[in-house]
Amino acid sequence: MADETYTVQRSTTIDARPEHVYEQIADFHNWPKWSPWEGVDPQLKRWYSGAGSGAGAGYTWSGNRRAGQGRMEITNATQPSSVRIDLQFEKPWKSRNDLVFTIQPEGTGSRVTWTMTGRKTLMTQVMGVFRSMDKLIGPDFEKGLAQLKAVTEQRAATD
Fold it and tell me: Closest Cα to residue 85, out of 73, 70, 77?
């Protein structure tokens, strides 16, 4: 089974309580402030559906070739410690991934871990010949976590 899936995981510490971090992740309306992919298409179209935040919240996007097209839905949210998301890409290729954000108290702040697990498809196997999914997507996770850290710490400082 391990050969049929891939996992990408990155962590960072944020100088803010877990509640502050959770609210940035569990509400898709906040993602444009920190998601590493928001800047790849200035004309990106986005739609929100379902719950305002937490379980049942949905986010659909459509953009240029780099942004692609897809949908995310929060399938489980335990405030303030975890958010699980079903991520489905339609373009540039079809894939389905499981995203999990875990938020744990650490010192006076939080440790956030972003994990993506997916099934290897023909496309990911072809891409993996040149670069592993970890090397391909890991830098995006690092950028996103750095932006999440900046946004959350700024927001927490005003509370």
Answer: 73
- Give the whole-angstrom CA distance, residue 7 versus residue 80: 23
Residue 143: helix, strand or coil by DSSP? Answer: helix
Say what the pTM is: 0.90
User: What CATH number should be reported for the domain whose range is 2-157?
Assistant: 3.30.530.20
Q: Could you report the per-residue pLDDT of 91-120, keeping only the tens digit for each? A: 887 889 999 999 999 999 999 999 999 887
Domain layout of the chain by residue ranges: 2-157
Q: Where are the beta strands (DSSP E) in the chain?
A: 5-14, 45-50, 57-62, 69-78, 82-91, 95-106, 109-119
Q: Which amino acid is at 4?
A: E
Distance of CA 58 to the CA centre of its chain: 13
- Largest Cα–Cα separation, the chain: 48
